[in-house]
Amino acid sequence: MQNRRRAPNEITPQSEDTGLFKKDLGQFRVSLVPHIKRSSRGDLVVRGYLNDKQEIFVVFAGRRAKDALAVETRVNSMFAKATQAAVRSGSRPPEVNQIRLGVHVEGAWRSRFQRDVSGWDHRSYQLLASRWAFADAEGMTNLGGRPPFS
């Protein structure tokens, strides 16, 4: 298969945003959980919930992945504090889905299909984050990201 990706030095912010934000932007309130991974391109992918029901993945892609370190740090610290509190009290550690960080995200949706072991395709949704806001440990609003180029 031919690799059609541009070399990293050829990618401009405008060409990056053109590829990422192909659909209209919207504003969404999501709850992120400490299930975090990095894609092969270095994008930050965090599992979360829309309206506390629908499971989604929020993708902080490209140059915005560096700005999203504050989100990653906050979610990881929330998980560490909850785990330490459980150890001190002698109870079981909390489940990952119980720890949630409320984030206001401006972004665009894309759907993704993955085939399971039985051969069925399952659709999952990814929210490509352009800008976001959340409360840090002190309760201050933390803003990140940039609006896409038009």
Question: Could you write a compact summary of the structure shown?
Answer:
The protein is built from 3 helices and 6 strands, in the order αβββααβββ. The protein has 150 residues and is of the alpha+beta class.
Count the beta strands.
Answer: 6
Q: Which percent band covers the strand fraction?
A: 35-45%
> Percent helix among the residues?
10-25%
Uncertain regions spanning at least 5 consecutive residues = none
- Strands of the widest sheet, in order across it, are 1-2-3-5-4
Q: What global shape is seen? A: globular
Q: Helix-strand pattern, N to C?
A: HEEEHHEEE
**Biggest sheet architecture:** 5 strands, mixed, barrel
Number of helices: 3
The overall average pLDDT, rounded, is 90
Measured on Cα atoms, how large is the radius of gyration? 17 Å
Q: What is the distance, rounded to the nearest whole angstrom, between the alpha carbons of the first and last residues?
A: 32 Å
Secondary structure class reads alpha+beta
Report on the architecture of this protein.
There is one protein chain. This protein is an alpha+beta fold. The chain has helices at 13-20, 64-67, 69-89, and strands at 26-38, 44-50, 54-60, 101-115, 121-135, 141-145. It has a five-stranded mixed β-barrel with strand order 1-2-3-5-4. A hairpin with a 5-residue loop joins strand 1 (26-38) and strand 2.
